[in-house]
Amino acid sequence: MKKIVGIIGGMGPLATCDLMLKIIKNTDAECDQEHVHLLIDNNIEIPDRTEAIVRGGTSPLNELIISANRLTAAGADALVMACHSAHYLLPELEKAISTPFISLIKTTTMRLKEENKKTVALFATEGLSKAGIYQAEFEKAGINVLVPDDSEQKLVTEVIYDAIKAGHPLARPERFQDLIDSFRKRGAEKIVLGCTELPVAAMKYKFEADFIDPTYELALEIIRFAGAKVIGS
To answer: Which of 233, 202, 199, 206 has the alpha carbon at shortest distance from 82?
Structure first.
């Protein structure tokens, strides 16, 4: 019997759509009934995660719990969050919710370990970088992680918040490509797109690198969990 997956979305809406699209595109299905049964709560009331982590803003926890309960009540067998930064609250969520979570961060770490990657660069929100969630998982897996300095982080933040969340054109996209290239020269075997807006930006602006897209890795894990078939498997 196939399982139902609930997506806590709205962080942001485009990133939520990107996850759903990747699930659909990577499911080996010849009819509607062979796809994954998804429940999506595009909860735009969830407070900004970086504001909460870095500047003491309103905690997203209450709204995350509301979404998780809503999806559980609707029949979800497992939950995922279409946001990296929200995973800093995953331990508290798991205490409050009985429905199991599939972690985007653990899924990505597992894939990097399978590929025997030793050094990666992490591009993420300021909040996620400061929370150190990815760094802790990578360290346990024996993976060295490079992160942007303060000036480099400003450019990553601009791509996430101004170009994708706000929907404004990115001024001089070549600046971001230069940043990518600089981390490759520093020894990064993979660039981790550690914010769900970044894969959207990479596609929109055609950035080039050996990326690992955690949204894609999560999509594959969702397909497998649900009992559907991944294309090519």
So the answer is: 199
